[in-house]
Amino acid sequence: MLKVMSVIVPILVLLLIVLPLVKVFKGKVSALSAKRRIILHVVMFFTLLVGVTVAAPIAFAAGEEAAQAASDSGMAKGLGYLAAAIATGLSALGAGIAVAAAAPAAIGAISENPKNFGKSLIFVALGEGVAIYGLLISILILNTL
């Protein structure tokens, strides 16, 4: 029962979070309807968050032996590796978006006035700092495994 719930609950949570926004991203709803869907999405997310934090200790209190067996089998290490990968990947994606916005602006500023090179370089480097911080977090996660 615990194994089935550990598969079904995350899928259900993911569907409940994503489904209100499908038509918004496809562009098939008006702006007012999109605003309502986004509000529904936020309310549903926080409702699920509160529900999981309240119900999880009750539901999994009886399964402490199963949790101990799962952590011994390497599930905790697997989730740790997954967390490190997500931290690195999403921070690199964010850094790419930041540099994609800052670098053309920096090139334009330098072409107008070459004295702006130092200031422009700082803004591009700040975007790259996001990736470095994500890599640092993933190294810290890997050190605890």
UniProtKB/TrEMBL annotation:
<feature type="transmembrane region" description="Helical">
    <location>
        <begin position="38"/>
        <end position="61"/>
    </location>
</feature>
<dbReference type="GO" id="GO:0045259">
    <property type="term" value="C:proton-transporting ATP synthase complex"/>
</dbReference>
<feature type="transmembrane region" description="Helical">
    <location>
        <begin position="6"/>
        <end position="26"/>
    </location>
</feature>
<dbReference type="GO" id="GO:0015986">
    <property type="term" value="P:proton motive force-driven ATP synthesis"/>
</dbReference>
<feature type="domain" description="V-ATPase proteolipid subunit C-like">
    <location>
        <begin position="82"/>
        <end position="141"/>
    </location>
</feature>
<dbReference type="GO" id="GO:0015078">
    <property type="term" value="F:proton transmembrane transporter activity"/>
</dbReference>
<feature type="transmembrane region" description="Helical">
    <location>
        <begin position="81"/>
        <end position="109"/>
    </location>
</feature>
<feature type="transmembrane region" description="Helical">
    <location>
        <begin position="121"/>
        <end position="142"/>
    </location>
</feature>
<keyword id="KW-0812">Transmembrane</keyword>
<dbReference type="InterPro" id="IPR000454">
    <property type="entry name" value="ATP_synth_F0_csu"/>
</dbReference>
<dbReference type="InterPro" id="IPR002379">
    <property type="entry name" value="ATPase_proteolipid_c-like_dom"/>
</dbReference>
<dbReference type="InterPro" id="IPR035921">
    <property type="entry name" value="F/V-ATP_Csub_sf"/>
</dbReference>
<comment type="similarity">
    <text>Belongs to the ATPase C chain family.</text>
</comment>
<protein>
    <recommendedName>
        <fullName>ATP synthase F(0) sector subunit c</fullName>
    </recommendedName>
</protein>
<dbReference type="Pfam" id="PF00137">
    <property type="entry name" value="ATP-synt_C"/>
</dbReference>
<keyword id="KW-0472">Membrane</keyword>
<keyword id="KW-1133">Transmembrane helix</keyword>
<dbReference type="GO" id="GO:0033177">
    <property type="term" value="C:proton-transporting two-sector ATPase complex, proton-transporting domain"/>
</dbReference>
